[in-house]
Amino acid sequence: MGKVISMTGFGRGEARGAQGSWTVELRAVNHRYLDIGLKLPRRFMGWEERIKKEIGASHVRGRVDAYITFSDEGAAASRLKTDLQLAREYLACLEEIAETLALPGKPDLAMLASYRDIITPIDEEMGAELLEELWDSFREALGAALDECRKMRQSEGERLAADLLARLHSFQSTVAAVEHSLPGIITNREATLKERLDILLAGVDIDPMRLAQEVAILVDKSDVTEEIVRLHSHIEQFQTFLGLDEPVGRRLDFLVQELLREVNTVASKISNAETAHMTVAMKNDLEKIREQVQNLE
């Protein structure tokens, strides 16, 4: 069996460099296409496309959310700055308001601190050389998260593949049962048609050869040999795809649709109670298979 991979997984990676340490968390869930969401510090927003390219190399489809944090422990510089001149102007304005309106109390530090433009974060612009140096340590953390996430996806993929094979075997057994009963169904269908025609055409002069031809045509419309052959072919392809070491979710999803189409044709051609029960069982197996295939990459 190949390494079928699930789209669902979690991974965490950490790395430390000369400038600080990184933590990367990945959460991957089902999605029809590849959709990557990033949450990273503002000063590293320029990396967005590079990060998505790294993630895209490991994920073919699914919703992947990456949560990235950076702690620059070695930085000694302050992260905040004050605008003292603006603070003086605010204070003068507040004192003037208090005096003019005869308000009790005096403006204090807490009141001044409510004006956010007095104390503001330092705009941390990083040079290209420093960003490139940080990228190496970040990529190490991202790689560790991707590896852990992939291991979890592979583990779940193995369980899904085993479940799919079991359900496919159940489906295949029912197809074989329909195939085995087909000669009897055709014989009974032919006998039933002849009985009905004998009753309807009682006393009517008709060429026996012509009657036999018409019966044969009606019986042929109930023959599902071609559909059974295609079902076996699709089942074989399904098993082959499960043995590949590459993403096969979309191909398996397509095969499930084709299998369901053939089963519906069989159900419509054979108006037989026993076969109807078997086609319902096949549809039930296919629905469960489809649900599991939706989890595969």
Task: Explain how this protein is built.
- This protein has 297 residues and is α+β, with helices and mostly antiparallel strands.
- It folds into 3 domains: 9-75 and 126-154, Ribosomal Protein S5, domain 2 (2-Layer Sandwich); 80-121, no CATH class; 156-293, Butyryl-CoA Dehydrogenase, subunit A, domain 3, CATH 1.20.140.
- The chain contains 8 helices and 6 strands, in the order E-E-E-H-E-E-H-H-E-H-H-H-H-H.
- Strands 1-2-4-3 form a 4-stranded mixed beta sheet. A two-stranded antiparallel ribbon has the order 5-6.
- Helix 1 links the parallel strand 3 and strand 4 (62-71).
- The chain is elongated, with a radius of gyration of 35 Å.
What's a quick, concise take on this entry?
The protein is α+β, with helices and mostly antiparallel strands and 297 residues long.
Helix content class: 55-70%
In CATH terms, what is the architecture of the largest domain? Up-down Bundle
Low-confidence stretches: none
Question: Kindly state the mean pLDDT as a whole number?
Answer: 84
Record the strand order, biggest sheet: 1-2-4-3
What percent of residues are in strands?
5-15%
